[in-house]
Amino acid sequence: MAAGARVRDAGEDRLRTLGAGLLDRLDDRRPEVRVAAVQALGTIGSPEAVPALSGAFLERRVAPTSTVREALGRIGGESAPAFERGVESPDPIVRVSSCFGIAAIAATHGAAVYRLAEVLASDSDARVRAAAASALGIAGGGNAPAALVAATSDPEVQVRRAAVRALGFFDDPTTGDALEERTEDEDREVALRAAGALVALARRPRAGPDVRARLESSSAWAVKYARTVAEVSA
Amino acid sequence: MIAVLKTISIGILVFFLIYCIATVSLLALSVRQISWYSRGQGPARGRPGALARRPSVSLVTPAYNEEALIVQSAKAFLASDYEPLEVVVVDDGSRDETFARLDEAFDLVSLPLRGRTALPTAPIRSVHISRNEPRLRVVHKDNGGRSDAINAGISIALGELVVIVDADSLLEPDAITRSVVPFEVHPDTCMAVGGGIRVANGSRIVGGRVVTPGVSMRGIGATQVLEYLRGFYATRIAWSEMNGLLIISGAFGVFRRDLLVALGGFSKATLGEDMEMTMRIHHTLRPNMKDAHVVFAPDAVCWTEAPGTMGGLRNQRVRWHAGLLDNLRMHWRMFGRSRFGAAGTFAMPYLVLFEAIEPLVEVLGFAIVITLLIYNAVNWTYLVAFFLVALVTGAVLSATALLIEEIGFRRYRAKDLAGLTVWGLVEALWFRPVLAWWRLKATLFALIGRRPGWGTIPRGEGILEHPAETVTPLTR
Q1: Which of B82, B98, B350, B428 has the most CB atoms around it within 10 Å of its CB?
Q2: Could you report the per-residue pLDDT of B126-137, keeping only the tens digit for each?
Q3: B129/A228 CB distance under 8 A
Q4: Shortest alpha-carbon distance between residue B281 and chain A (Å)
Q5: What is the DSSP string of B117-128?
Q6: Does B456 score more than 70 pLDDT?
Q7: Residue A38 and residue A60: Cα distance in Å, rounded?
């Protein structure tokens, strides 16, 4: 046991040393070196890199936002404060990326769904609300469908599209009303995505019976479209 | 008069020297980028599949009277290695059996169609899904032209990204995957990606795929291979790196679907709708979104058949030049303006000087030489310098294009490269003057309001205020 612990400690020391070397590389003048350093820090998963990566993420420097977000996501729960601050950023791109960052660490970040639901309900930028809806679909969690159902009435079409699409990932019978209503949405894509989500839910154990009944009685063009696609694809 | 002509001729020589310096600078940047590229490095590069969920892609291909190859093309597009993918073939009111061939091969089933689509187009008669290939949609519509057909496809498509491909284009199996990488690396700022277009003439093609790249040994084919290598691999890489790329070829381009809808779709007001869309992206986004990117992905390859006759080449080039002039007129406000980044400060002046005006200067140069010869007043030092500049420019451009090809891609055999080198040395003597003459004709047509092909074109088109705000973030 002691030998095993020594090897583990030695490995962790070595990773820390490597991580420290990589942190210096975050300021390299060559962009490809900075990108590689960010990716390597994410691969190592060292929490010591979180402050530097958080700064890079929030200030959108060092490397593309998505690359830094991915590295922070790989490190895990320790990155939560960066994403929490990110959703408060004045920069909508950082807020969008933070939503997906929160979704990536949802398994280790208990407040993820709550935080995303809050962003979905309150952010002033439709792009950020759409990202929060998509991120809720990725994060999962029991409270997500309620927030997404509310978002199906969002005035911005891109938010409605993201919300109905995300609802298709949840086996939740309470979402049927909202999705059925959206099959008549004035936006063709919202209607088709809502119908597609209903067809997907019809195959789920909990939501299935109710949704199948809705599909049978629906006369919406989008439902006919989605059912034809599903039948052909089966 | 002779003195005036001599003064003008010196001005022309200076013009070409500036062209050489500008182009060689672009080439140097391209060579640097491609050497990074060949090592899998560089700021725009990343690992495919970086996003947790790959963006859904709709490949849209307009087809007009394509009965001979549409089934093979659709099958080849469906055989792409990218998932999730849907292929939307738009039959633009073909007069031949294009739709019937598709119906026969893919067992089409009609889908319900609602009245209003995302973009206004000529009436859509029907939309279909294939029973034996459910990723295929076929849109059957009244004829409205290429832009109209693409807009109909965009309206029916459901992918986050739209790939626009000509029906006779031959996509490499990994072309879509590679073209999506910039969107994965920069999901918030990458707006459009252009793939590399190569000339298929002389290659061995089986089942809609280029299986053995080759080069036609006829001058017109080989010289166009060189021309495409120069255009795509020697300069677009540099423009992309500077974020000043002003054209994504209509043969193969990838766009965010929401952005295309927000911008109102492809324009019917120009003969160069592919370039116009690229310019419009810069024109509308850059002032408020500095880091909005239009990227060239040289390793995403699409093969196309180039005109094999001088008549076909003339029609194509006159149309291209008329399209260029249309687009410069529509987006002249970008000229020299720093708020549009390198697109405004470098790329637009480069296009105006060395694409729009250059044919005039080149033909004027030849005319002056001939006049001076007639009057026996030729300055032989000038004459030798003029032809040396023309020859050296062509040779340097061609050599660099071949070097980039060798460093980065190595598609061609030694025999093909040797043929290309020979044709590259002589093209300044026949190909460039002919092209200059056709482009000058296109300019003259434009000045008198005459337009080549594609019918009447409406003028003027508004620039939208904030289209970026309607672009949905890519799920990841």
Answers
A1: B98
A2: 999 999 999 999
A3: yes
A4: 18
A5: -SS--SPEEEEE
A6: no
A7: 13
